[in-house]
Amino acid sequence: MVWVIVLVVIVVLLVIFSILAYNGLIQLKNRVDAAWAQIEVQLKRRADQIPNLIETVKGYAAHEKSTFDMVVQARSASVAASGPAQQAAAENQLTGALRQLFALSEAYPDLKADSSFLALQEEITATEGRIAYARQAYNDDVKSLNTKREQFPSMIFARMMGLQPREYFEAEPEARVVPKVQF
C-alpha cells in the first residue's frame, strides 16, 4: 500500500513538473515573439519618418543626391528584411545612412535651423532610443528562451515541441564605426 502511494505521488509530481516546464517554454516563446513585434513596430515607425526627413533636407541640399539615394536604398532594405540577422544588417546600414544625412545639416546652417528638420531629427533620435530598448528586451527574452530550451529537463519538451534556438538582434562590428562624412 505504501508503494502505491509513493508511486502515485511521484507520478503526480512528474505531471505537475511537466506542465510547469511546458508552460514555461510557451511563455518564453510568446515573450520573444512579442518582443520581436515591438522591434518591428519601432522600425516601421522610423521607416515612415524617413521620407519626410528626406523631403525636408532636399529643399536645402538638393545636390546631395548620392546621400538621399543611399538613405532610400537603406530604408528599402530595412523594410524588406526578415529575421533578426537580416534585419540587424539592414538596420546597421540604415543607421549609417541616417548619420550621413544628419551630418549634412552641419554644412547647411539654414537646414540646421529649420524647425521641421529639427523636429524630424528629434523624433528619429527618440525612435532610435526606442529601437535600442526594444532590441535589448528582445535579446534578454531570447537569452531566457535559449537557456531554458537547453536546460534539463525542459530540453525534452523543447525538442518535442520543435522549439529551435532564436537569433539575437546584434549590431555588426562595422556598425560601431563612426562614418566619415566629407563635403
Description:
With 183 residues, this protein is mainly α. It has a single domain, classed as Up-down Bundle (de novo design (two linked rop proteins)), CATH 1.20.1440.20. The protein is 80% helix and 0% strand. The protein contains six helices and no strands. The chain has helices at residues 2-58, 65-80, 84-107, 109-113, 115-150, 154-161. The longest helix has 57 residues, at 2-58. It starts with a helix and ends in a 22-residue tail after the last helix. The model has no long low-confidence stretch (mean pLDDT 86).
Q: How many distinct folded domains?
A: 1
Backbone CA Rg: 24 Å
Helix content: over 70%
CATH class: Mainly Alpha
Largest sheet: none
Question: What is the N-to-C order of secondary-structure elements (H for helix, E for strand)?
Answer: HHHHHH
In short:
This protein is mainly alpha-helical and 183 residues long. The chain contains six helices and no strands.
Ordered list of secondary-structure elements with their pairings:
Layout lengths: L1 H57 L6 H16 L3 H24 L1 H5 L1 H36 L3 H8 L22
Helix pairs in contact: 1-2, 1-3, 1-5, 2-3
